[in-house]
């Protein structure tokens, strides 16, 4: 590459959520020019797209945030344990304002192509308006749960009222008070949405295919005392996340297995932890719940019994009972009044799996094999093409015009979820085969890794980093080996997005590194220390 090949920016990133903001911070700190594009009308990523009623984080607020500035951690005030989308958006604006990030961000800018240019070694990025930009380093910051799945229901498009995916909630809001609402899907999104909508909608009817294991969230206000406690221990909290298997500030491992604990004691411990809420229940009770099938069965039965104890109608409770798959082999939602909502007169559950499969969407509602339901609004809470969807939709072309989507046809391969062979100088933040963890933690660890690679290249005069095929093969095999040993590998029985089993045109695949987020972050650091042995660097020609 010649030095005359000066790019418009050192770094271009697509996506102005947590990943894009973190990238701006760390790239600037490293002295690199950066620009972030997003097709949305606001920053926020998930929190700008998912404006549905009840949308809130499932991670507790004080570690669901960026940690690069102690000042920001101290200054920002959360109002509740799990902030809603509005508060998360306000937080992200606070970060962008305080850190003067706006000059680096272009909103309402849809990137429609990203091509590696063999002749210059630069990436050429094209917007829907036809503008082009070049960069040396191209970063996908598009999120791992961002590209919606729209099922091919017969008649979809015929419905006369609003009908949209939950992650395309009307940005101007939607007046659903007094309306008859249908929600298709029973994942985390629906579990959050249903109890809130049921409060003012005329009716809410949930069309469920698979019943979920669901744990309590237990929302609570952020008191002055709690805030002081958090803010006086932030270094420890950040370190806890960095060293936790799911990137969360939990007190685990606890050093105790369910399998080795007497049954009475097991029930006592589970009962004590249940009302505390959050994913802590999985991690602060026993260490073997997600690895030992028998321990998993015991906890699965406990969760099922507890979650349904307030559902009055026995038939509804039966429909809500998860069957035929292990706890956590599908990502469990957190409930804020979900089960109680089914006791309301205006909430109905329809089992579209066995009892009355969905036949078609009509002009006025939804027809099942048993009856026609009339609605004013239909929400498709039907999930996402996790980990690969956004990159595949772009499209991204590497060496010799290779389309990333084509490369991933059979195996969504990567090196640690960051690099892809045949795609020089492309970096993904939480790409496929990275862990599934508290996202801000994983995002920051990925960004630090990417920036360390860029710093090395700039320092040592490299033009290209070319991910090695053998390193990719090794990571793919390692990730698959671990996946096979986990209960998550059974997610294909119930269309789990965690292995792409929710996509009708694709075979289930290994999408997540389940070796532990902390172990993964260690591997990233080890790679930096070893000089990035997974990639081959090519010198700049002067
Ligand atoms: P999801 O968990 O994938 O759920 C999609 C739902 O749509 C499932 O119940 C699925 O049924 C159903 N569905 C899909 N296609 C269908 C069809 N053709 N007919 C009938 N039903 C169909 O999606 P999500 O609820 O949007 O959540 C996805 C992930 O996003 C979560 O697991 C979570 O990681 C993240 N999320 C996080 C938060 C948070 O942290 N606060 C909130 C929302 C989402 P099957 O189960 O039978 O496939």
Structure overview:
It is a single chain. The chain is built from 17 helices and 20 strands. The N and C termini lie close together (8 Å). It has helices at residues 18-29, 46-49, 70-75, 85-98, 188-197, 224-231, 234-242, 263-273, 280-283, 293-308, 314-319, 338-341, 389-393, 404-407, 439-460, 469-485, 517-529; strands spanning 9-14, 34-37, 105-106, 111-117, 122-127, 132-140, 163-165, 180-184, 203-208, 215-216, 334-335, 347-351, 358-361, 365-368, 372-374, 377-380, 396-397, 426-428, 462-467, 535-539. The chain is globular. 30% of the residues lie in helices and 16% in strands. The strands form five sheets. Strands 1, 2, 3, 4, 5, 6, 17 and 18 form an eight-stranded mixed β-sheet that branches. Strands 7-16-8-9-12 form a five-stranded parallel β-sheet, covered by helices on one side. It has a three-stranded antiparallel β-sheet with strand order 13-14-15, with no helix packed on it. The longest helix has 22 residues, at 439-460. Helix 1 runs parallel beside helix 15 and helix 15 packs parallel to helix 17 (517-529). With 542 residues, it is α/β, with parallel strands linked by helices.
Range of strand content: 15-25%
Cα-based radius of gyration, to the nearest Å: 23 Å
Low-confidence stretches: none
- Quaternary state of the chains: single chain
How many distinct helices? 17
């Amino acid at each position: 590459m010649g030095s005359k090949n000066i790019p418009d920016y050192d770094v271009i990133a697509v996506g102005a959520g947590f990943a894009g903001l973190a990238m701006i911070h760390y790239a600037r700190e490293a002295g690199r020019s950066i620009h972030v594009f997003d097709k949305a009308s606001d920053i926020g990523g998930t929190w700008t797209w998912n404006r549905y009623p009840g949308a809130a984080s499932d991670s507790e607020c004080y570690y669901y945030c960026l940690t690069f500035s102690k000042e920001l951690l101290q200054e920002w005030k959360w109002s509740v344990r799990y902030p809603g989308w509005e508060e998360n958006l306000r937080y992200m604006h606070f970060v962008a304002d305080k850190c003067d990030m706006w000059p680096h961000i272009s909103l309402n800018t849809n990137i429609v192509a990203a091509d590696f240019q063999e002749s210059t070694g630069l990436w050429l990025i094209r917007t829907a308006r036809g503008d082009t930009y070049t960069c040396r380093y191209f970063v996908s910051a598009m999120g791992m749960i961002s590209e919606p799945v729209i099922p091919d229901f017969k008649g979809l498009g015929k419905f006369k009222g609003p009908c949209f995916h939950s992650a395309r909630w009307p940005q101007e809001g939607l007046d659903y008070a007094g309306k008859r609402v249908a929600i298709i899907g029973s994942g985390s999104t629906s579990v959050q949405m249903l109890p809130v909508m049921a409060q003012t909608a005329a009716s809410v009817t949930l069309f469920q295919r698979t019943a979920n294991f669901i744990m309590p969230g237990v929302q609570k206000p952020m008191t002055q005392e709690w805030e002081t406690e958090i803010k006086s221990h932030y270094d420890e909290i950040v370190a806890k996340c960095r060293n936790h298997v799911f990137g969360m500030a939990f007190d685990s491992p606890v050093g105790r297995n369910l399998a080795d604990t007497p049954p009475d004691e097991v029930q006592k411990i589970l009962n004590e932890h249940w009302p505390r809420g959050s994913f802590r229940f999985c991690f602060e009770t026993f260490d073997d719940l997600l690895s030992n099938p028998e321990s998993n069965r015991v906890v699965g039965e406990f969760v099922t019994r507890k979650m349904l104890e307030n559902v009055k109608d026995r038939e509804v409770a039966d429909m809500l009972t998860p069957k035929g798959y292990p706890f956590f082999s599908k990502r469990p939602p957190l409930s804020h009044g979900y089960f109680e909502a089914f006791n309301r007169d205006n909430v109905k559950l329809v089992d579209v799996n066995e009892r009355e499969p969905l036949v078609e969407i009509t002009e006025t509602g939804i027809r099942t094999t048993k009856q026609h339901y009339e609605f004013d609004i239909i929400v498709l809470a039907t999930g996402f093409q996790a980990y690969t969807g956004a990159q595949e939709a772009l499209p991204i072309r590497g060496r010799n015009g290779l389309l990333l989507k084509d490369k991933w046809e059979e195996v969504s391969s990567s090196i640690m979820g960051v690099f892809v062979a045949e795609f020089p100088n492309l970096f993904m933040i939480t790409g496929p085969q990275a862990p599934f963890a508290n996202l801000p933690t994983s995002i920051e660890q990925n960004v630090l890794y990417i920036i360390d690679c860029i710093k090395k290249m700039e320092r040592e005069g490299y033009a290209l980093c070319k991910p090695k095929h053998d390193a990719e093969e090794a990571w793919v095999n390692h990730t698959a080996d671990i996946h096979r040993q986990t209960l998550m590998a059974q997610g294909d029985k119930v269309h789990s997005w965690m292995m792409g089993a929710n996509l009708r045109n694709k075979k289930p695949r290994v999408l997540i590194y389940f070796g532990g987020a902390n172990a993964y972050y260690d591997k990233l650091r080890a790679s930096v220390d070893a000089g990035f042995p997974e990639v081959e660097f090519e010198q700049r020609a002067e």
